[in-house]
Amino acid sequence: xxxxxxxxxxxxxxxxxxxxxxxxxxxxxxxxxxxxxxxxxxxxxxxxxxxxxxxxxxxxxxxxxxxxxxxxxxxxxxxxxxxxxxxxxxxxxxxxxxxxxxxxxxxxxxxxxxxxxxxxxxxxxxxxxxxxxxxxxxxxxxxxxxxxxxxxxxxxxxxxxxxxxxxxxxxxxxxxxxxxxxxxxxxxxxxxxxxxxxxxxxxxxxxxxxxxxxxxxxxxxxxxxxxxxxxxxxxxxxxxxxxxxxxxxxxxxxxxxxxxxxxxxxxxxxxxxxxxxxxxxxxxxxxxxxxxxxxxxxxxxxxxxxxxxxxxxxxxxxxxxxxxxxxxxxxxxxxxxxxxxxxxxxxxxxxxxxxxxxxxx
Length: 361
Description:
It is built from eight helices and 16 strands. It is an alpha+beta fold and 361 residues long.
């Protein structure tokens, strides 16, 4: 090689090395800033004062007495920015998702997309990918084996659900996977500000913790008696419930949305193969407030159904202090449900909507 060729080779190597060093320093700075901003433990925001003080465990009783079973309502939901592109992607939600974009001059290879799908699936949160079909000119859900046709991708990570809030390491891994896909596919990646997304997530999480409550009504057997499982099943099915694989009876509407459930007051679940031999001292009807539209109407329907079951099983409706339900207590709970739904409407998360169902899952 000539001296000129050697000089060009050395210069090229230096430039490539400088680019890699710059990217490494930027990534290191990003991780350090996220750890500094969000390294501290999260403080849960609980309802306080008056009626709300009885709801700290996420459960509303008709006489405002906390009750079990405990609700798994630790950390909730999130608002995150989307890329500043005007393309609309069906399936992603700027309130719930962190949405990254990938854009290439040609179709991305299928192996590259497949690797991206595998990596983001391990982030620990629900994920979704939509691709822009260059041939059809439409956005669609990306399916393995159909690569070689998508020139753009929108990659969504749900930041919060009832399992908890996404942590900085998970979000960083998601962004790394997106950028890696872009690098291997000769494309450009755009990831929104992660720090802003995490901050907004914590703010919305605090709101959702306030409204994530359930209304429970207990049906108990007479002193010294118990309900046979076969009799519970017959009465529940006659009232409109159906036993489902999660070990509970569900009362569903015409759209198959679960309105409220009937669960064993004792630890054992209701299972088809064992319910005939089961006995229990009581059952609980439960209304998951943020997951049901028209909550006050559904509450009245649940109470009506509870009275029907009490008659069929010769049981009594009580709160967790085994005190009979009062109309005054029921009225207070009805107003509280209306208040929660009104707050959710103002926040843009109507109770029972697809957004609420994703968020409170």
